[in-house]
Inverse folding.
């Protein structure tokens, strides 16, 4: 299938699909004409990429994590034992960001409250 069909089947626009290719997350076959050719496995690969992005991972981390994921039918699971260490590190990074954002919101609420009086 060509990139337009992959975009239609995954709901991801063509520009993002090209970006995923630039990041090494997708590796379509190139036809002599230069057109990209995707297979059914690429549809699943894009779904995995989107799941990992939604989990807060950046594309650099996804490039490392993606080969070690397996679809369990209920979601993605780590297929390589070493992957859990990386995933826990990313979870801790996200938790720190959440705490920082919570602190910032609390401070902003205090400023808004003080201004309202």
């Amino acid at each position: 299938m060509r990139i337009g069909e992959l975009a239609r089947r995954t709901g991801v626009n063509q520009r993002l699909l090209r970006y995923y290719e630039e990041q090494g997350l997708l590796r379509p076959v190139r036809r002599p004409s230069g057109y990209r050719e995707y297979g059914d496995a690429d549809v699943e690969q894009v779904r995995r990429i989107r799941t990992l992005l939604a989990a807060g991972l950046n594309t650099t981390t996804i490039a490392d994590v993606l080969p070690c994921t397996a679809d369990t039918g209920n979601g993605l699971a780590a297929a390589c034992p070493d992957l859990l260490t990386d995933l826990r590190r990313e979870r801790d990074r996200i938790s720190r960001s959440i705490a920082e954002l919570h602190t910032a919101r609390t401070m902003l609420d205090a400023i808004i409250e003080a201004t309202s009086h």
